[in-house]
């Protein structure tokens, strides 16, 4: 099964059924990132044909601390859809794990774009085209057993996206007079049931969450796919190491140096 359309259909079936799928690289040793990108595009087409509405993109593996663990050498990206993105307006939200396989949680900086982005833009130009910023949690998943895969597997499967939960949106100007510095230097604590699970900083996200967006813009141009457009939602990758989750847990975030509203997320079956 080397045809991109066939591989995409196989992955789509596993995702819809919330079941495991053998790593493609194990069955097809010559499966490259270029081939994985074509499979991901076919998978995206299947979702759109099934009624999904594209709303933005997630960037994965922007935290270099995760690269060795998952044998990844650079960030990856995948599409997000209206049914896989939720906004939490209060200080408490809930999330179902029922449709996810081996889920983990990642605290992330999320941006909303107000204008398209081009490859030549520096991070100042990117900042000027951001409408809002928020804290969020992405529930990522692995259909490959025990989170054992190579980069092409992750890309082909939509870059492990499960569901994104976005907190209160803040205008970018609310970050103060030096938002680039704030986005680099803020500190984050991730808690499970009030116990500290992991810490991280903005610099853990490829040096700055804005640099993660810049990297994505350049990769999209290289891959000759649709560039980032106005009104897209971009989640920039985990600030901490991804943490495994189970139903019954409540996860929360503390922020130091970044004036964003946080919220807790309780997980259920």
Structural features, described:
This protein has 269 residues and is α+β, with helices and mostly antiparallel strands. The chain has a single domain, classed as Fumarylacetoacetate hydrolase, domain 2. The chain has helices spanning 4-17, 24-27, 33-49, 67-70, 123-128, 151-156, 179-185, 209-223, and strands spanning 54-60, 76-81, 85-87, 92-96, 104-113, 130-140, 161-166, 170-171, 187-192, 195-201, 233-238, 243-244, 250-256, 264-268. Strands 1, 2, 3, 5, 6, 7, 8, 11 and 12 form a nine-stranded mixed sheet that branches. Strands 4-14-13-9-10 form a five-stranded mixed sheet, with no helix packed on it. α1 (4-17) packs across α3 (33-49). The protein is globular, with a radius of gyration of 17 Å. The model has no long low-confidence stretch (mean pLDDT 96).
Structure annotation, total helices: 8
Q: Could you say what the CATH architecture is? A: Alpha-Beta Complex
Main β-sheet: number of strands, strand sense, barrel status? 9 strands, mixed
Shape verdict: globular
- Given this structure, which CATH class is correct? Alpha Beta
Task: Show unreliable segments.
Answer: none
* Order of SSEs: HHHEHEEEEHEHEEHEEHEEEE
CATH topology name = Fumarylacetoacetate hydrolase, domain 2
Instruction: Give the termini separation.
Output: 34 Å
Alpha-beta content class: alpha+beta
> CATH-wise, what's the superfamily?
Fumarylacetoacetase-like, C-terminal domain
β-sheet strand percentage: 25-35%
Helix residue percentage: 25-40%
């Amino acid at each position: 099964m080397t045809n991109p359309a066939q591989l995409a259909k196989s992955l789509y079936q596993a995702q819809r059924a919330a079941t495991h799928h053998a790593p493609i690289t194990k069955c097809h040793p010559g499966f490259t990132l270029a081939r994985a990108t074509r499979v991901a595009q076919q998978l995206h087409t299947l979702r759109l044909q099934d009624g999904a509405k594209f709303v933005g993109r997630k960037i994965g593996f922007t935290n270099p601390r995760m690269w060795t663990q998952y044998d990844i050498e650079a960030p990856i990206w995948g599409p997000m859809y209206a049914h896989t993105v939720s906004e939490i307006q209060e200080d408490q939200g809930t999330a179902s794990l029922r449709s996810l396989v081996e889920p983990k949680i990642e605290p992330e900086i999320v941006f909303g774009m107000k204008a398209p982005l081009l490859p030549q833009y520096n991070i100042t130009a990117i900042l000027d085209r951001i409408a809002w910023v928020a804290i969020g949690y992405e529930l990522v998943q692995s259909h490959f057993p025990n989170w054992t895969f190579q980069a092409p597997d992750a890309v082909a499967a939509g870059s492990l996206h499960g569901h994104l939960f976005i907190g209160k949106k803040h205008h970018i100007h609310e970050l103060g007079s030096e938002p680039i510095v704030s986005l680099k230097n803020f500190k984050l604590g991730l808690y499970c049931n009030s116990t500290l699970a992991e810490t991280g900083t903005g610099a853990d996200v490829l040096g700055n969450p804005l640099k993660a967006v810049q990297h994505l813009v350049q990769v999209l141009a290289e891959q000759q796919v649709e560039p980032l457009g106005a009104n897209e939602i971009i989640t920039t990758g985990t600030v901490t190491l991804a943490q495994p989750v189970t139903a019954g847990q409540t996860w929360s975030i503390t922020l130091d140096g970044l004036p964003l509203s946080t919220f807790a997320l309780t997980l259920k079956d």
